[in-house]
Design goal:
Distance between the termini: 37 Å
Largest sheet: 6 strands, antiparallel
Mean pLDDT: 89
Organism: Cardamine amara subsp. amara
Shape: globular
GO molecular function: acyltransferase activity
Protein name: Putative gamma-glutamylcyclotransferase
InterPro entries: AIG2-like (IPR045038), AIG2-like_dom (IPR009288), GGCT-like (IPR013024), GGCT-like_sf (IPR036568)
Low-confidence stretches: none
Radius of gyration: 15 Å
Number of domains: 1
Structural class: alpha+beta
Order of helices and strands: EHEEHEEEHH
Family: Belongs to the gamma-glutamylcyclotransferase family.
CATH superfamily: Gamma-glutamyl cyclotransferase-like
CATH class: Alpha Beta
Helix content: 25-40%
Oligomer: single chain
């Protein structure tokens, strides 16, 4: 294993990537995870979209998982999947398995005043309706990353909305 693929990152996930099959596509392996909670954030639904976002929210709480041992190349896959609507930031989460605090990276919605944000996103509801489509979509996105001239980005992303 060379230094560019040596595990070095931990990423807090809270949306579609909670689904093991989705995470496996991004990582090209099974994810090692620990349950965690992120305080002072809220996970919103987004009108007309099937995936959630998080933004800072005083006294808020987002349940999710930390994927551990992520290499630089895998982190780059996360960046591609999350796109420009999200910003990767470092946050502190509380591990649910041992109550320890942990510094991790996560993806926060850039437009913190987005009028499309509302309510609370529900993972189980999403899983039943959208999980299979996301697995296929993420495969296409990562194929596009390998060969961006094969398809237009818009053609890949449009059906995901």
């Amino acid at each position: 294993m060379n230094s560019s693929s040596a595990p070095s990152h931990n990423v807090f996930v809270y949306g579609s990537i909670l689904e093991p099959a989705v995470a496996a596509v991004i990582l090209d392996r099974a994810a090692d995870t620990v349950p965690a909670v992120l305080h002072d954030y809220h996970r919103y639904k987004l009108k007309e979209l099937t995936y959630p976002c998080i933004v800072p929210f005083q006294s808020g709480k987002v349940n999710g998982k930390v994927i551990t041992g992520i290499s630089d190349a895998e982190l780059n896959n996360f960046d591609v999947i999350e796109g420009s609507s999200y910003e990767r930031v470092t946050v502190e989460v509380l591990r649910m398995d041992n109550s320890e605090k942990m510094k991790v990276e996560t993806y926060v919605w850039v437009n913190k005043d987005d009028p499309r944000m509302y309510g609370e996103w529900d993972f189980e509801e999403w899983r039943v309706i959208h999980a299979e489509k996301f697995v296929e979509k993420f495969k296409k996105i990562l194929e596009w990353k390998k060969n961006p001239n094969a398809n237009r980005w818009e053609d890949i992303m449009e059906p995901m909305l």
